[in-house]
Specification:
two-stranded antiparallel sheet; 5-stranded parallel β-sheet; 39% helix; single chain
């Protein structure tokens, strides 16, 4: 999904997480738009983690994730994907003033893999544009030693941008996403040394 080889130092490996698992979710067309824009932007190798397709169970590991002593194949696979990323972009709705349980559960499986990596959000909803979901998620990602960006894409009154199953953005959405991608690249580069030198888990 990138025009340059993954081994190139100027390629940022970005993990796009689609948080909603609800049938009929609007996050999928929004994520498809974002992925298309990322590919047009260039400089990224994209991995898409659709939580609806991953079907992670409720946290079922017997050991605390801080030890990275995983016993389940789904945890090991999820760990490898987050570990491989340089930056993370989360597409999330807002449910009852908070983030989806599916996103919180996915975060709770891991502890070290997201350390010192930038994370940005594309949120969507009604009047709030999903911003309260992001505020809740930021509390969690900072605890996981991730770096949440101030830049974001907030989509207010989202149904009016969905036409024939596709997300049709406004210019403000497109400009916001370009800023997000630029900042993800800068922060991923700046934090790379910290990721290389962090101590092995105890």
């Amino acid at each position: 999904m990138t025009s340059r080889p993954p081994s190139s130092l100027d390629v940022t490996k970005i993990l796009v997480i689609i948080a909603s698992t609800r049938p009929g979710r609007l996050g999928l067309p929004i994520a498809n738009w974002a992925i298309s824009e990322i590919e047009k932007h260039g400089g990224f190798e994209v991995d898409v983690a659709d939580l609806a397709l991953m079907d992670l169970p409720m946290l079922d590991e017997p050991h605390h994730p801080i030890h990275r002593n995983y016993t389940k194949p789904h945890t090991i696979a999820w760990s490898k994907r987050v570990d491989a990323a340089d930056a993370i972009l989360i597409v999330t709705p807002e449910y009852n003033y908070g983030m989806p349980g599916s996103l919180k559960n996915a975060m709770d499986f891991l502890s070290h893999e997201g350390n010192y990596k930038p994370v940005a959000f594309i949120s969507y909803g009604g009047m709030s544009g999903g911003m309260r979901s992001v505020q809740m998620a930021k509390q969690v990602v900072t605890t996981l030693k991730m770096v949440p960006l101030a830049e974001a894409v907030n989509i207010h009154m989202v149904p009016k941008y969905i036409h024939d199953g596709q997300f049709v953005p406004e210019e403000t959405h497109e400009k916001s996403l370009k800023k997000v991608l630029g900042e993800l690249t800068r922060w991923a580069d700046a934090l790379r040394a910290m990721r290389v030198t962090q101590p092995a888990p105890a």
